[in-house]
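User: Show me an example of a complex going from sequences to structure tokens.

Assistant: Sure. Here are the input components:
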Amino acid sequence: MGTPWWVAPPLLFGAALLQASFFPSLGLLPVRPDLVLQMVVMWALLRGWRQALPWGFVGGLVLDLFSGAPFGTASLALVLVAFCCSIGGFSAFRDNPLLPVVTVFWASVLYGLLFMFLLRTHEVPVPWISMMRQVVVPTAIVNTLLAPLTFWLISRIERRTRSTVAVDW
Amino acid sequence: MSTPAPNAFAWLLVFVALSIGATIASTRRLLDFPRDVASRAVAPLQTGVSRVAQGASEVFSGWGEVSRLRAENAALHRTVEELVQETVTLRAAELENRELREQLRYSQDNPTQTLLPAEVISFDTSSLMGTAVINRGSDSGIQEGMTVRSTAGLVGRVATHTARTSTVLLMIDPSSAVSATVQGTPGATGTVKGQSDGRLLMQHIPQAEPVKVNDIVVTSGLGGAFPPKIPIGRVVQVVTRDVDMFQQAEVEPFVNFRKLSKVLVATGFVPTKL
């Protein structure tokens, strides 16, 4: 079972727009929640690697569009995270609502580490320890707190598109 | 846990290759045109969303600030009385200053006076990067490296730009470094570097130079990347150790980067490319 190809880009674009323009301008949180990452992780858990990979790639490209980091950094990191999350997800996920929340935390940490590593390969200075302490872990916590809400939204979309004719990889 | 099919790894490699290809294409500037088109399309959306969020932010902050504002109002009344006295003195100094500035052709020597107003329309999608996007690009005369400031002080410099938008590397990004000096202590020069927690650290200040808490840090102009005398922040802590050649100071920026919405680009200042 698949999802029409056009579902992912507008959803991920909207999430990236909120992530880049809405949340920072609100100024309520010291770190920005990674909505795109959360959506990709949830989708990877629900639909497996076949859809996780294109979602991760498209989500990453959208993030790259809004980011000052070298283009392709977010897409590469998100493709790898999506793949890791999709391994063994699907069936276990439906019986255990805590799994997506826990997965979002670890996926956020993994994404942060990959992102920093890729920045370093572009010779961008990365203070690893302070970045981990002050950015990666706080962002992972914020993402985890928001995960139930994202899960609710994504699972609704997933249910609505489940019976649609497949356009899979 | 199920093991992914072998072709899963093949597809993973395909997407990894696509991502790396995007990076290479971007490095070779092959994506400049599509990114430019995309930024033209997206910029109005970003502006709209950002303005809605700023409006919402003002409402939220207004609720919590009523009692604080009352106390502040009383304190401000007292301050106003003191300032009225001070203003009288300053008016006389201002007249004298204006006259002297004209004599020195201040505007010619200080090109940062050519300032282009811009609006922050989005911030980086990742908290790991300290960048912001403004709604002005090369169509407005913006070039890479130009200094971006606000009325409070230095914000950063233009890292990249499209025709309609520019990405600003904020001073608080860990990869940012600004040559600075402590106001009133010309020998106390150093480099202000961004920290991942949003604060600034001034490094490589000679041990012999006296630096105190509450000292004002400004750009030094050394290196030619930024014009001199743009306020950066206030010293909140000085770390001096006898065993070190240099001392360092923690600096609180004047600009509130979490509430940054309006900036000015110094289009009159062309940075030196070293």
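The lines above are the inputs; the final block is the predicted structure for all two components together. The mean pLDDT of chain A is 86.
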